[in-house]
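Render Sugar-binding transcriptional regulator in 3D.
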Amino acid sequence: MKFDLEIQKKIVPEVLELLEKRYDILTTIYYNQPIGRRMLASYLGIGERIVRTEVNFFKKQNLVDVKSYGMTITDEGREVLEKLKEFVHDLKGLSEMEKFIEKHLNLKKVIVVPGNVDENELVLDQIGRTSANFLKTIIKNNYIIALTGGTTIKKIVDNVTRTNEYKDILVVPARGGLGRSVQIQANTLAAKLADKLSADYKMLQLMESVDYKELFAIFHEESIKEVIEYIHKADILIYGVGKADEMAKRRGIDDSKINELSKKGAVGEAFGCYFNRKGQIVVSTPTAGIKSEDTKKIKLLIAIAGGESKAEAIISVQRYNSKNILITDEGAAKKIIDIIKNENTNKDA
């Protein structure tokens, strides 16, 4: 199949470009249905005239329904999208990207979805759906699932379909609150995921950033102590990866300390720790919930992050925890590969 694809790229590249464009249009309709032509054109950054032409084609092929309230994908269109997914994966070279990153970052598994969150925020929906589908393949009865908060993790929870096929599942927040929107706090997302999995859940009712004295006192409260113990016993941890400077600002860290982080080479952040590109922790903040040392004992670590701008951050965190599972996008994957190749070139020089 790879040989055939290479021949097609050389002989009829325009056909593959058209296929990729139509796949992107269908995918955008699918994730945002019902959607109007104008909004579709805006999302894709193409003219309404082009959209109208392509939609008329899809309509004739019975792939799309056009109503007064917007366009939707037909059952046949959904089937076509599913069959095209693997082909487009190969067409874009995503399988090779996955293997390269797995090998050079020593990861258990890498999944790359098409697109770049930095250029199109709708790609985050695809990351969420892909992650949700993957999650349901690894859950087993009696598992404890811990998850952090954030917009990316919310996308996963939103895309998990309701089921009662698992028994005795417990979902816990991996961390306390972060002064952010309630909808994306770990407590909220843990409760929502538990509801979708017909599982139990526990809440960590305290703020994430408190000083050591407060943490010591809080951890002796029975309700808090119980949740912390469950977090430490988690079978699966789902977490996001942030850029060091951005996460420091969100936590209200003053500019002088942010500059100090930069001087120490911090590029990535996860579970209250700031990492340099080698995967070393340069600063660790007191946190209620999961700690860096806890992650070494968890069976399945799933890091979720997308966008070319997060490439350095992703590398830094994944190097700390090898054997991770990483779900990211094409933009981040390409940049990660470039960074690794440049590092190898500099080593050889």
